[in-house]
Amino acid sequence: MSEKPYKISGWYDVYKSIRKPMPRPGYVEEDKRPSAPPIEEEDASIEDLKIEANIVCEGKGHELGEWADAKRGRQNVSTSTCKKCNKSITVIENPLGNETDMMGEALTQNCL
Ligand SMILES: [Zn+2]
Questions:
Q1: N or C: which end of the chain has fewer CB within 10 A?
Q2: R_g of the chain computed on alpha carbons
Q3: Cα of 88 to ligand 1 centre, how many Å?
């Protein structure tokens, strides 16, 4: 039996080598990497949202006035307007799937 000189020419030779074997062509190996735990995002309270909204709006040059709290069903909502440009912002506790917890012109547009 003659030993051929070792030559990496295809997947089979690689499989016989000391290197980690590659999956066969056309075969998808199961991903054995550990998966990260699901991200659990806590719902922010209405007061936290107001603080966050103030920071964001301040960055856009707005100066928010008093917050007006209201109830919308079981949700707490609060609205404020800018003292300078009158653009409004609304924060919603536990927003529905198609909503964000912050909405309004003051959030997306810069102050005058
Ligand atoms: Zn403004």
A1: N
A2: 29
A3: 8
pLDDT in tens, 4-50: 655 555 555 555 666 666 677 787 777 788 888 877 777 778 999 99
The span from the CA of 44 to the CA of 105, in Å, is 21
Number of C-alpha atoms within 13 angstroms, CB side, residue 14?
9
Residue 75 burial (CB count, 10 A): 14
Say which residue the tokens 């709290």 belong to: 69
- Output the CA 87–ligand 1 centroid distance in Å: 6
Nearest to 100 by CA among 71, 83, 77: 77
Q: How far is the CA of 37 from the centre of ligand 1 (A)?
A: 41
Distance CA(50)–CA(68), nearest Å, equals: 11
pTM for the model: 0.61
Of residues 91, 78, 87, 79, the one with CA closest to residue 111:
87
| Domains in the chain: boundaries | 46-108
